[in-house]
Design brief:
By secondary structure, the chain is α+β, with helices and mostly antiparallel strands.
C-alpha cells in the first residue's frame, strides 16, 4: 500500500530515513516495521518564527518496496541520420535545446566557443592565480555556460512557459541528486554541476549529435531573409567552417561580440532593463543567527540559511539576487579590462561566508541615447571603472557595509571568500549615483527589517553587473523565430528570454520544438 501524507515537523525529525519512518508510523498509527520506505516529495523550511519547522509531503510505502523510479526518464533515440539544426552556445539553453531536438528526431550540432567543462577549470583558476582572463574560456564562456561554475540554483518562477519538473528530471537522469525534485529552493552545487553537464553532452554525442568546442560563430549564412546556417572559426587550428541548418542562438548574456555583430548587421534588437550593484558578503554564521532567530546558528539539522530582500527606492527596485549561502564570491570577467563578481556555492554550502547580489533596477530610459546596445555600454563602463579601482587586476574594490551606507572610507576589510583579493575603495564615490544612492537607502530598509543584517562585519564587493542580458533579440511570440529572419531562433538568457538555469532550459526546449516544426514544414512532412 502507498500513502501520501503532509507533515510539519522539527528539523531533527526530518533529518534521516529512520526518523521519517518513526514519524509516519506515529502519524498513521502503524508498526514502523511495515514501513519499507519513505520518499520526500516536497520539502521546505519555515523559519518565520523562533521555532523552525520543516514542511514535508511524503510518500509512504507500507508492506511493499518502492517500484517507481525516483525521477522520470526521457528516452533519447539515434538521430545520426536525421536532418540537423545548429545550436550556438552550450549553456543550459543550448543543452536543453539539443536534448529536446533529439527527442523530436532532429540532429543537434552544437557550436561552443569555449572549452569543455573539465578543461575550463585551468582557465578559471588562472583568473585567481595570475589575474589573467582568457576571453574564450572563463566563468561565462565554455561548456555549461555561466551556470556551470555557479551554485546551480534551480529555483524559478517561470512555470507558465514549460515544465519545470521536466528540466529537473533531466538533470536527475544525468546525475543530479533527486533532492532537487523535493526542495523548495533546489540547487545542485558547483562541485556537482560540471559532472552533470558532461553527462548531458555525452547523451547528445551517443545519440548521434555533434559538439564542437572552441568553435566560434562569426556570421550567419543568409539567403534573403532566411538563415541557412552559420560560419564559424576553429579557435584551435584556425580556418573557417560552415554548418547548415536552422539556428538556435543561445550564446548567453556575456557574448558582447555577438550583440555587436547582430547590431552591425541590422538584425532587430532592443535595449533591455537589468540590475546593477555589488556582491554583499556576510559571515555565514551571522546569517544563520539572523534567519533562524538563534544565537547558536543553524545547529546540526538545518542548512546554511538563505534570505531574500526587496524594496522600492525612488521608483526603482532594490533587491537581493542569486543568494549563495555557505558560498564564495568569484571573478566573472569574460575579457580584458573588466572586473565583474558573481557568487557560487558547493553542494554542501559549507563555507564560512554567505553572499548575494544586492542590485538596483536600471531601465533603458535611465540611460541616455537610443542605441539598443546602450545598456551593454553601461555594463562595460562600470566593469572598466571597477577594474581600474582594483589596480588594473582582478583585485576587487570593496567597502564595509555600514561604511558604505554612512559614506566613509573603510580603514580595513574583513576576511573574504574572494580569492583574487580585495582592495579598499569608496564605492559610494564612483558607482553610478542612481545605483549607489538607492543601495544605501535599501540597506537601511533591510537593516530595519532584519536586526543585525546591516553590519560592518559584512563587505560590499564590486561590481555585480551581469544579472541578465542587456539586450533582447526580437522574436515572434508565435514561432519564436526572429521577427524578420526565418530560421533564426533567439534563445535563453542571452537573447533576453530567460533569467536562470531552469528558465533558460525551458526556453531551449520551446525553441527546439519550434525549430523541429520548421524543419518538418520545410521537408513537407
Amino acid at each position: 500500500m502507498i500513502k501520501e501524507i503532509q507533515a510539519r515537523v522539527l528539523p531533527h525529525e526530518a533529518a534521516t530515513q529512520s526518523s521519517l519512518t518513526a514519524l509516519v508510523a506515529r502519524e498513521l498509527r502503524i508498526d514502523a516495521r511495515t514501513v519499507h520506505h519513505v520518499r520526500v516529495l516536497r520539502r521546505s523550511i519555515d523559519a518565520r518564527q523562533r521555532t523552525i519547522y520543516v514542511n514535508l509531503m511524503l510518500r509512504v510505502y507500507i508492506n511493499e518496496e518502492p517500484s517507481d523510479d525516483a525521477f522520470v526518464r526521457t528516452e533519447y533515440g539515434d538521430v545520426s541520420a536525421a536532418p540537423q539544426a545548429i545550436v550556438v552556445g552550450e549553456g543550459p539553453g543550448g543543452l536543453f535545446a539539443a536534448l529536446r531536438l533529439i527527442e523530436l528526431g532532429v540532429r543537434p550540432v552544437i557550436l561552443e566557443r569555449g572549452k569543455n567543462v573539465s578543461d575550463r577549470r585551468r582557465d578559471v583558476a588562472a583568473i585567481t592565480r595570475r589575474h589573467e582572463v582568457d576571453g574564450e574560456s572563463n566563468y561565462c564562456f565554455g561548456e555549461g555556460g555561466a551556470g556551470a561554475y555557479s551554485d546551480g540554483k534551480l529555483y524559478t518562477r517561470s512555470k507558465k512557459r514549460g515544465s519545470v519538473e521536466k528540466i529537473l528530471n533531466v538533470f536527475c537522469q544525468h546525475g543530479a541528486s533527486t533532492d532537487i525534485l523535493a526542495d523548495a529552493h533546489p540547487h545542485i552545487g558547483t562541485d556537482k554541476l560540471p559532472l552533470v553537464i558532461a553527462a548531458m553532452r555525452d547523451t547528445i554525442l551517443r545519440c548521434g549529435g555533434a559538439v564542437h568546442h572552441q568553435t566560434k560563430m562569426t556570421r550567419f549564412l543568409l539567403e534573403g531573409d532566411e538563415v541557412k546556417g552559420v560560419e564559424a572559426v576553429d579557435l584551435v587550428n584556425g580556418g573557417h567552417k560552415t554548418f547548415h541548418g536552422p539556428v538556435i542562438l543561445a550564446t548567453g548574456h556575456s557574448a558582447r561580440d555577438v550583440y555587436r555583430y547582430l547590431a552591425d548587421s541590422g538584425i532587430e534588437l532592443e535595449a533591455k532593463g537589468l540590475a546593477i550593484g555589488v556582491r554583499l558578503e556576510h559571515p555565514s554564521h551571522l546569517i544563520d543567527q539572523i534567519q533562524y532567530h538563534n544565537t547558536a546558528g543553524r545547529g546540526k539539522y538545518l542548512p546554511a540559511a538563505e534570505y531574500s530582500f526587496v524594496t522600492q527606492v525612488d521608483d526603482r527596485g532594490v533587491y537581493s539576487f542569486c543568494m549563495c549561502p555557505g558560498g564564495f564570491v568569484i571573478p566573472a570577467a569574460s575579457g580584458p579590462h573588466q572586473l565583474v563578481v558573481n557568487g557560487m556555492s558547493p553542494s554542501n554550502r559549507g563555507s564560512k561566508w554567505s553572499n548575494s547580489g544586492m542590485v538596483v533596477e536600471v531601465r533603458p530610459e535611465d540611460v541616455s541615447g537610443d542605441s539598443p546596445l546602450r545598456m551593454m555600454a553601461l555594463q562595460e563602463r562600470i566593469e572598466e571603472d571597477c577594474w581600474r579601482q582594483g589596480g588594473c587586476r582582478q583585485t576587487a574594490p570593496a567597502q564595509r557595509m555600514v561604511d558604505f551606507v554612512e559614506g566613509r572610507r573603510s580603514h580595513d576589510l574583513p576576511c573574504s571568500s574572494y580569492s583574487p583579493g580585495l582592495t579598499i575603495s569608496k564605492l559610494h564615490d564612483w558607482l553610478p549615483q542612481m545605483v549607489a544612492t538607492r543601495l544605501r537607502k535599501g540597506f537601511q530598509v533591510f537593516g530595519t527589517r532584519s536586526k543585525g543584517f546591516l553590519t560592518n562585519e559584512a563587505v560590499l564587493i564590486a561590481a555585480e553587473t551581469r544579472t541578465s542580458s542587456p539586450v533582447r533579440v526580437v522574436r515572434l511570440p508565435e514561432t519564436l523565430q526572429h521577427v524578420r529572419l526565418r530560421g533564426l531562433f533567439p534563445c535563453g538568457e542571452g537573447a533576453g528570454y530567460a533569467g536562470g538555469i531552469v528558465s533558460a532550459g525551458i526556453d531551449g526546449e520551446r525553441c527546439a520544438e519550434k525549430c523541429a516544426e520548421l524543419i518538418k514544414a520545410t521537408q513537407g512532412g
